[in-house]
Design goal:
The protein is 91% helix and 0% strand. It has seven helices and no strands. The N and C termini lie far apart (37 Å). It has a domain of 67 residues. With 149 residues, it is mainly α. It is globular and about 45 Å long.
Length: 149
Amino acid sequence: MVVFAGFLSNCLIMGVARSFGIFFLHFVHHFEETSSRASWVISIAMATQQFMSPVGSALGTHYGARPVVMVGGGLASLGLLIASFGHSLLHMYLSIGLLTGQSQLLSHSLFISLSLSLSLSLSLSLSLSLSLSLSLSLSLSLSLSLSLS
């Protein structure tokens, strides 16, 4: 069950970050902004995840992994829902950049720390879950890219 949950978490949450290049050109054309300003959307999300990962690990240690990951999933849903109503890049910075970035830190950092602290067989299965989720998110992004073009 842990492997399946890790697979879904990494496929859905990290798949958004990995497939941002598909939406990049649409953001540039839709908001009529430069590519450097549009690239800040995913940069803020990744910076939030990377710099705040110790906070996510501390929250997971204090409250437990399950409630923290559930809050992370809720933040991811909220961030993407708010982004769908966005009318400017500032909305994208706040919704995808901050909210989705925080959900990535809460879910992904706990998944990685959980896989490092468990036994070898479970760590191997979690690693398999990570590799499968990355390959599935790559195939989904390729199919989405083909359907948008």
